[in-house]
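Q: I'm a student working through a structural biology exercise. My instructor gave each of us a protein and asked us to get a predicted structure, then write a short paragraph describing it. Mine is RecA-superfamily ATPase, KaiC/GvpD/RAD55 family. I'm not confident about reading structure output yet, so if you can add a plain explanation after the tokens, that would really help. Here is the sequence I was given:
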Amino acid sequence: MGSVGDRNDSFARSLQELKRRGSNLLVVGSPAEQARDAATRRLLGDGVAETRRRLFVFTDATHADARIGHGAVGPETVRVIDRTTQTRTTAAAVPSTSTPGRIARRQLETTRLGSLAWCIQEEIETFERHAGGFSNGELRLCFDSLAPLLSEHDATAVRRFVQTVGNRVRASSGMAHYHLPLSRSEPIVETLAPGFDAVIQLRVRDGLPEHRWTLQDGALESSWIPL
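A: Happy to help. First, here is the predicted structure for RecA-superfamily ATPase, KaiC/GvpD/RAD55 family. I'll explain a few features afterward.
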């Protein structure tokens, strides 16, 4: 067995490879807003030092906010798909009109996973036209909760959906993450996990948010790291 230093180096190289070739990440664990916001901000990356195109997909508008993240805010850098159903309105997702910067927001009323995947692809293509092509890690997708999809569809359909979206994101060398506020040990998490490149667990310890990564094959797992 290698040393801790060797293991850390191997894990760091694996994360760099995920960034280079694109990745689909499942975020589970603590539902605390503090932890979710910190993880989302980290996964969206620094949009000041480098250009980031941030696409948010809202299904319940409780696990993310379109203004999380550092960098320019405008239709060429931040876009939102607000998926609604007959039982959910979008009032909670409307940003304050007093906040500077304009966010391109698209309403989609559907329960069909194929329609949602197609809409995501169209928004990515809009970004790509503005960008003239993506650099590695430039595209960042935040999916605020898979829970509503799992209440409407079986796990196989949802897993197929995230694989379809993930393939599109990887084709752009982007990074997508999906929140699911359940314990890592929940059976549905075990079912979905193979469809992702990594699973990220969240927790709040002594009032501070932390995260731990497990790569898809389970061979590499990080320690708990402050967010």
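A: Here are two points you could use in your paragraph. Residues 4-91+99-226 form a domain with the Rossmann fold fold (CATH 3.40.50). The longest strand covers residues 198-205. It's a good idea to check both against the output above yourself.
Q: Great, thank you!
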